[in-house]
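# nightly structure sweep
# worker-07 picked up a monomer target from the shared queue
# config: single-sequence mode, recycle default, output format = structure tokens
# input follows
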Amino acid sequence: MRRYLIEGMSLDEDMVDFASCLAKAYRGKIRPFCLCRDPGVPMYIADIGDQHVVKRMPLSGGDHDPVCPSYEPPYGLSGLGPLIGTAINLDPSAGVAALKLDFSLSKRCSTTAAGAKAAATDSIKNDARKLSLRALLHLLWHESGLTEWTSNWTGKRNWRQVYRHLTEAAGNMTVRGESLTDRLFIPEPFRTDDKAAIAQRRSQKLAGLFQPAVGTRRLMVLVAEIKEFADARSGQQMIIRHMPGVRFHLEDAAWRSLQRRFETELALWKSDDALHLITIVTVGGNSAGIITVNEIALMTVTSQWLPIDDAFERRLVERLVRLRKKSVKGLRFNLSRNQPMANVILPERQPLACALYIVPAGADEGFEISLKEMIEARPDLEAWIWRVADGDLPPLPI
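# output follows
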């Protein structure tokens, strides 16, 4: 049972009138405090699907007690750690994270050939000073809580939930003083009986892409699920779920580049209809009123919307999703595949939480040295290692 301090009153979440107290605090813009520690840890109240929910502040999970549901594993075990304080700067008083991006949200008007640079930038740079396109997607996924799982949530996570949590997380991020939500478009769940209103809201959100401009044009970030790729007169059309009738064009060169750079993600997605392919794209508008692709990155997720890098991570994750205790999927952000990270963490395991590492078959000596240093730096965590070259998945530390 969790307790919160709201306006000087200690409230238990199982109180009969707890929901009404949250609604009142939300309307009054009152900040609750989680009493897992003394003094309490500041949090905020979100309105998600007509339900008020107490959520942790951006990147504050480490401030909570390890037994608290809001606790997050150490950021240094994933690609997030090096970005905090450089690419991601927190403002505790405002409860927002200011982001520095290594991709542009504007484009020179003189540039033509829609989609010509769709995948020219591989979007993954080992640079802690700025967020790559993929790193921004990973941050949104992380802050939305979509890296966390317990079997109690089976059947309860769908695009409607993903949409709401991503939108809520983006509201706590800024780029150059502007709320990320002003430059981010996530397709809302499509409903046939509301399709006209949905199309109108989409047009209003994207209208800024087609405003007359001199010198540079405004770009936006699209985060969505890809339904399929289809042949076009030249290149490919990218068809997005929940955006019927909208097509994104990739020229032949961009399509070939995308296939090379994201070969693993595409192969995983094609291997099983249960998997989802998520894209993050910077998009613009041209004089013909067509939405154009500028840069793009991909991420494959499981049926539970948990990100996976390859088939080995998928095997591990699919074993863990059956557990009632929480698991937290690690993300690479700007890290390359030849750098180790904790692929999954089991924060509720006793007597010690456990970090799960996968060593790929082609790992070199540098990988092993870095892994050893990472494990030795966290004596408070037990380490479980699967060296893929040694054989099948070892018994899990559960």
